Amino acid sequence: MQKLSISERLGLVNYRNQGRSQATPHILVDTSICNSVCPHKCTTYVCPANCYTLDDEGHVHFQFEDCIECGTCLYACDQGAVTWRFPDPETGRGVNWSLG
Amino acid sequence: MDEKFDCIIVGGGIAGLSAAMILARANVRFLLIERGEFCGAKNVSGGVLWGRDLARLVPEYHEEDGFERFVNHRRLTFMDAQSAFTIDFKSSHFDAPPYSGVTVLRARFDAWLAEKVQAAIDASDVADESFLATNILVEEVLMEDGRAVGIRAGEEKFYADVVLLAEGVNNLLTRQVGLQADYVPADYVAVGVKEVIGFDRNVLEDRFQLRGRSGLTNEFVGYASGGVEGGGFLYTNTESVSLGLVLGMKDLREKGRKPYDLLNEFKAHPVVADMIRGGEVLEYSAHVVSVGDLRGMPREVYADGVLIAGEAAGLLLNAGRAIQGMDYAMRSGILAAETVIAARERGDFSAATLKNYRTALENSYVMKDLRTFQDAVHLLHSPMMFGPVPELICDFGRQFFTVDSAPTPRAGQMLRAAIKRHASYWDLIKLGIKAARAL
Question: Does the structure's ipTM exceed the value 0.95?
Answer without folding.
Answer: yes
